[in-house]
Amino acid sequence: MTILHLALATDWDAARATGDxxxxxxxxxxxxxxxxxxxxxHDQLRGVQAGYYGHVTAPLVVLEIxxxxxDVRVEGGFPHVYGPIPLQAVTAVHPYEPTTR
Length: 101
Prior knowledge:
Elements: E1 3-8, H1 9-18, E2 20-21, E3 23-25, E4 28-29, H2 30-33, E5 36-37, H3 42-53, E6 60-65, E7 72-75, E8 78-81, E9 85-86, E10 90-95
Antiparallel strand pairs: 1-6, 2-9, 3-4, 5-8, 6-10, 7-8
InterPro entries: DUF952
Protein name: DUF952 domain-containing protein
Pfam family, one: DUF952
């Protein structure tokens, strides 16, 4: 099983420099929110993009995350990761394309 997270490319680049990912959602950190918002699939991810990132012109990426060993709780129908996401849990990174998958 894989979960997905929509991220600004610059936030992902910063995580690669520090060793883990700590952005909950657009403009909110893990420390501020308490968890990192994720999606079960690309349909949920498109809804997140439309609802929260529709005005964003900066490049977005999709992080594919292996949740093994992470504290993941499904709340409100969405997986939330409680704690930072280590780089090794991110199995793939793709540019966000709303019409694919």
